[in-house]
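User: My instructor asked us to take a sequence, write out its structure as tokens, and then describe one feature of it. I'm not sure where to start. Here is the sequence I was given:
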Amino acid sequence: MRTIRMLAPTLCLVLALTACADAPDPSGAAASGTPAAADAASSAVGSAPSGGSTPVSAKEVCAYLDGQLPTLRGIGSETGTMANLTVNLYSWYEKQGAVPTGRQIDDQTRQECPATRTEVLELAGMESFERL
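Assistant: Let's start with the prediction itself. The structure tokens for your sequence are:
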């Protein structure tokens, strides 16, 4: 229980920073509901990570998740596991230079390491990485 209390504020901070980092610049953004805004939103979905960084390979993601399994198994609660996974996976991706969408992580892990993917998601009480 103490771990959850310690991870909850960290999780909130990470989510808040992520939301702020992904917010469009209001001065150059198209008004919501316009065709330009719709085109921008649809082109951003599933696109390669920005900033010129290359995406992390499926093999690297699977190796990272395999290494995290002992820690995730030891947490003992789905909420704690999800919080740990959210913070640590995001931090790991950020160090690699490219943070993909949950769907991209799902696609990579389904192909490269389905057994590891299934165990990680079950430990965290999730059906998909899109929930992160």
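For the description part of your assignment, you could build on this observation: Helices lie at 2-22, 35-44, 58-75, 78-96, 102-112, 114-124. Try explaining in your own words what that tells you about the chain.
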